[in-house]
């Protein structure tokens, strides 16, 4: 059995004089004497002092030569108070063993600053850097906090299917799942591919959302949430889009849009607080990383607040809430628009562009914003139709809500659901969705239906906001994006 002490435990409760063994990867080796060791248990490195005998004794010298960047070592010795600045305790090593030599001359990473793009191409090693170690510890922390939040409030975790026959968002951005021979698929007499002969006896795809199945559960056990991978074949090469991402979708019976907005705000604040309270070292490191990076930028290109300051600001202030109609009015009467600074004109009836969302959050309200009641014509079929004239809108709206964050834009999209059977049937006909595909979804409205609402939080966008990472590809271990499915 292997016995070792974890670095985080040593630093949390240092027992001076204790004989200990540590194992980890060398983050840095200074002056042929000081190893900065990290075993993943926390953001802080642990200093191991290499005794002189490793340089002087010919029998030990081969070990000494192998102590280098990202080599994996085992060190045993006594825990002492540190003489040097920068750490309070250190290991006065007696023996050092190389567990995994690192062939530095051919190792892809080097002990210097490397670009995010380069590290992405070396995703099998990027987690060994301090930045990515912190990002992935925080990713874990957010996932844990999500389950804690809902569990503590009586929600049930619902596993929605990954393979489905329906397109929940109706946007047609799905990955097909098939076992048919793509070169020679079975065909119907009129020449079309015969999906009846496919594995499931119908055409199937990877899910874009677990919402529709979440609604089934909410209308039986009241308060549920899904938390799983979702897939979108949208060809968006942006810093906020992935083809495979994780979504959290609470769905609640006896909830309207107002309840839904309150839940969304409380929920994301809880997630941020959890990380602020439990991962201060990782946040500190990521905060410093951004400050260092921004040093070379002109003042107006820097973030208005440091990372930790921004997280505190978000949890301490109420989110702004506006209707879509008000939002469009704000955008149209802004100087920004009048000076022609928007690429896309904000007009009632078209979706808010990323630049509009960022203007509302970063310039107008200077805090997160929840926009509600969007035009019916641009939203999904399942959203509840509002009474005509709601918010003074010129056309019909639906009880949709998006939560917009600084830098990221939309982190949450959700709505109250259309629980009125006739309206829902009329809507899917209007949108050309075949009724047979959604027979079960429609029956929920005929047999013991209830007002209900829910939303989807983009997990990676949330992690992106909390870690301050500029690109969503850097907060998921192995990003899937157009033309990229390595690792
Ligand atoms: O707004 P969306 O499309 O909403 C739904 O899927 C609903 N069914 C949710 C619900 O009401 N239960 O997606 C929800 C969130 C977005 O706000 C965004 O944060 C994230 O999912 N998201 C993506 N994240 C990364 N890459 C993509 N391609 C994303 N598309 C959406
Ligand atoms: Mg959306």
What does this structure look like?
The protein is of the alpha+beta class and 487 residues long. It folds into 2 domains: 7-112, Nucleic acid-binding proteins (OB fold (Dihydrolipoamide Acetyltransferase, E2P)), CATH 2.40.50.140; 130-173 and 208-474, Bira Bifunctional Protein, Domain 2 (BirA Bifunctional Protein, domain 2, 2-Layer Sandwich). The chain has 15 helices and 16 strands. The strands form 3 sheets. An 8-stranded mixed β-sheet has the order 6-10-11-16-15-14-13-12. A hairpin with a 3-residue loop joins strand 14 (397-405) and strand 15 (409-416). Helix 5 (130-152) crosses helix 15. The chain is globular and about 85 Å long. 36% of the residues are buried. The model has no long low-confidence stretch (mean pLDDT 96). Bound molecules: 4-amino-1,4-dioxobutan-2-aminium adenosine-5'-monophosphate and magnesium ion. 4-amino-1,4-dioxobutan-2-aminium adenosine-5'-monophosphate binds at residues 168-169, 209, 211, 232, 234, 241-242, 245, 247, 249, 410-415, 454-456, 458, 460-461. Residues 168-169, 209, 211, 232, 234, 241-242, 245, 247, 249, 410-415, 454-456, 458, 460-461 line the site of 4-amino-1,4-dioxobutan-2-aminium adenosine-5'-monophosphate.
